[in-house]
Structure formats: structure tokens, C-alpha cells
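To the wet lab folks,

You asked to see what we're planning to order before we commit. Fair enough. Below is the target structure as C-alpha cells, and below that is the sequence we designed to fit it. If anything looks off to you, flag it before the synthesis order goes out.
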């Protein structure tokens, strides 16, 4: 096992000091949205003498034979700390088949990786789970259309809203949802009177209890960042989710979602493929949205971790590329780290911990991280700390 140095990612929606506070570093006035721990070539982490992607390319045995057989000489997952000060764009991620197909097509067409219209940055899928470190707010998956209709009616917007939600009644089903969503993406500037009407009605209902109040406040929260944007109405088609610390939100391929605010540990397949669907100034590839997005509806997949051993909490997703554990260590109760097949990454999010194996001992503080190769023997953890661990989902 070896100390791992992650990479800070500066996006405008990030917080200014939360990730710095975790890492024990000084803020520099720039927002920090993410802290990457992994081997993705866009922002690889570093070991003592090499970046992690280069180290694994030179010594694929560090990944383990089964992982190499399944994924090639690549770490199949990426761990992040994500900290959102305000809402992100609406987005979805492709399946493996669609990612491979889309990446190959753009490569064949000669679209530069840095081109603003480029959609596929790699040929990997991007299922993901976010585990909240604090109360975390998100939108995830489409809400039952009948409930959405009822919420707009309760908002008392007026007859103009029928121009937007009419297909939810007339066509119904996934076809109706898709028509409404795509219609909103195509809304012209002169049509935003409907957005204005929804926002005015939301002001009157923002103090309502329950789902109607959440619905109204979501519209106003989005308007603060994306004023009068038709994507606000698209976002109101989605379920709102509030995670408590320790709860996880799993987002499989094809599910439209958006993080609103909060900080959490996110683990995903090692990809940067994002198909945007509104609330953004970046390129929206409508044809890819139609191919990638699941326009079915249902409840978001909120995961309460399963305690598999004292202090060891697993977040089962049945995802092939990753598995995630949260360890709650007590000073008088050492435990053995989960040791699935493949290489592991360990991140300390609270307290201090000592990791020991047959060869060495590492003392870690809040914000420290470690890469554990597949060849590493069993590791004992002791201390008073919270620790996250990721590994391939090969069990």
C-alpha cells in the first residue's frame, strides 16, 4: 500500500472551502467542485514516483488478474469527493455499449476530444453512487407523470402550463415524457412566459409543506442559478431526493439527474462521459439524449448501507465496475479492511487511522488516501475514524 495524491477539479458550481477543509489545505479563492482519486487520464492521481495510470500500465499485476481479464490494464472505477455549492446541469450517462459505439463514431469522424460538441470522452460507462457526508440534495429519475400533473395543478400556474404538460395527458407513458422533455429543450426565448408563470406561482407556494413546497422551492432554487431557463421546467419532471449523512444514491446508466447542493463521496466507473439535458451553456446533443436516456419513471435508488461486520458498511449496487464500503472505526475496536478482488483505494474522511499489513504501517489523517494493490496482503485498520473504501465490483 502507498500514499495516493488526488487531483483538485475547479468547476464554477463547487464550494470554496469544503474540500480544502477535508484535505487540510488553504483555499485560494477558486471554487473546488471535485477531488479525484483514480487513474482516469484526464486527471490521474499520483503515487510517490509516477501517476497512477502510468504505474498501472507498467505493472498491471497491481490490478489483479481477474480485474485485468474483465477491464484490461485499467483501474475500473474512480473515487471522488464532490462538493456542490449550487445545482449542476441535468445529465445522464451512457451504458457500456452506447459509450463504445459513441466514442468510436466520434473518433472516426475526427472530432477532437476538446471540441465543445464532443460528447464521448472515453468508451466507458458511468454508473455512479454518491454517499452523503452531509445533507445532500439531488434530482434523480423521472417522477410518475400523474404526480407531476397534479403538482403543476396544485401550483395553480394557469392554463398556459398545458402547452408544456399536455403530452403527459394526451400521449402518456414514456412517449409523453420524452415529448415534453424534448419540447422544453427546444423552447425559444420568446416562449419563456411559461417559465415566468411557473416561477411566479412557485413564489406563492414556497412555504407549503410536503411535496408541493419541495416542488416550488426546487423551481426557485434553479432559477437563482439558471434564471428563466426552460430547463427549470424539465428539472421539475424529476424526483427530488434528500440524503442524510451515510445514505447513498445510486444512478445507473440512462437515468436523468442533477446534484443540487451538498458534499459526498462519489464512486463511479472510470469515465467522464456526460450527456447533458438542460440547465447548461454547454453542448446538448439531443440525438444522444434520445438514445441514452431512460424515459421510464420510478423512485430513486436510495441505499442504506448494510453492516456486513462490526463497523463495516457495504453499499450494494450490483455494479460490475465498483463496490463501496464505509468504515466507522472506534478506538478500541480494530478491524480488517474488506479485501475483494482487485486494487483498492482508501480515503479518510474523519479522524485518524493506522493501516498495518505484514510489511509496513501507515498513519493517516483526515483527507489522506492510499492505493492498495491487489497483491497486498490483509490490512488491519485501527483508530477513531471514518474511512471510505472502493474496489472493483467483482464479487
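Sequence we intend to order:
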Amino acid at each position: 500500500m502507498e500514499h495516493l495524491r488526488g487531483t483538485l477539479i475547479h468547476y464554477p458550481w463547487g464550494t470554496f472551502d469544503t474540500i480544502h477543509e477535508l484535505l487540510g489545505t488553504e483555499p485560494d479563492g477558486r471554487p473546488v467542485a471535485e477531488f479525484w482519486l483514480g487513474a482516469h487520464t484526464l486527471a490521474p492521481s499520483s503515487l510517490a514516483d509516477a501517476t497512477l495510470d502510468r504505474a498501472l500500465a507498467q505493472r498491471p499485476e497491481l490490478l489483479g488478474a481477474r480485474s485485468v481479464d474483465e477491464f484490461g490494464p485499467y483501474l475500473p472505477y474512480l473515487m471522488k469527493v464532490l462538493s456542490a455549492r449550487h445545482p449542476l446541469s441535468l445529465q445522464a450517462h451512457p451504458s457500456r455499449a452506447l459509450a463504445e459505439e459513441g466514442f468510436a463514431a466520434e473518433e472516426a469522424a475526427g472530432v477532437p476530444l476538446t471540441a465543445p460538441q464532443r460528447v464521448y470522452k472515453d468508451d466507458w460507462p458511468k454508473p455512479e453512487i454518491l454517499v452523503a457526508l452531509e445533507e445532500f440534495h439531488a434530482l434523480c429519475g423521472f417522477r410518475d407523470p400523474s404526480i407531476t400533473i397534479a403538482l403543476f395543478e396544485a401550483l395553480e400556474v394557469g392554463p398556459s402550463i398545458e402547452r408544456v404538460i399536455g403530452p403527459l395527458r394526451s400521449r402518456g407513458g414514456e412517449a409523453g415524457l420524452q415529448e415534453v422533455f424534448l419540447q422544453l429543450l427546444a423552447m425559444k426565448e420568446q416562449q419563456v412566459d411559461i417559465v415566468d408563470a411557473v416561477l411566479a406561482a412557485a413564489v406563492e407556494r414556497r412555504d407549503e409543506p410536503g411535496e408541493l413546497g419541495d416542488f416550488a422551492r426546487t423551481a426557485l432554487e434553479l432559477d437563482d442559478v439558471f434564471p428563466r431557463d426552460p430547463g427549470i421546467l424539465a428539472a421539475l419532471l424529476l424526483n427530488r431526493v434528500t440524503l442524510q449523512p451515510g445514505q447513498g444514491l445510486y444512478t445507473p446508466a440512462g437515468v436523468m439527474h442533477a446534484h443540487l447542493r451538498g458534499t459526498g463521496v462519489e464512486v463511479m466507473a472510470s469515465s467522464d462521459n456526460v450527456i447533458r439535458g438542460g440547465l447548461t451553456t454547454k453542448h446538448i446533443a439531443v440525438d444522444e439524449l434520445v438514445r441514452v436516456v431512460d424515459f421510464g419513471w420510478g423512485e430513486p435508488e436510495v441505499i442504506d448501507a448494510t453492516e456486513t461486520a462490526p463497523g463495516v458498511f457495504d453499499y450494494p449496487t450490483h455494479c460490475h465496475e465498483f463496490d463501496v464500503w464505509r468504515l466507522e472505526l472506534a478506538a478500541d475496536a480494530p478491524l480488517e479492511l474488506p479485501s475483494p478482488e482487485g486494487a483498492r483505494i482508501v480515503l479518510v474522511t474523519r479522524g485518524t487511522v493506522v493501516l498495518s499489513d505484514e510489511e509496513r504501517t501507515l498513519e493517516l489523517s483526515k483527507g489522506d488516501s492510499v492505493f492498495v494493490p491487489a497483491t497486498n496482503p490483509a490490512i488491519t485498520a485501527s483508530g477513531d475514524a471514518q474511512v471510505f473504501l472502493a474496489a472493483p465490483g467483482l464479487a
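Structural context that might help your review: The mean pLDDT is 94. The CA atoms of residues 326 and 388 lie 5 Å apart.

Thanks,
Computational group
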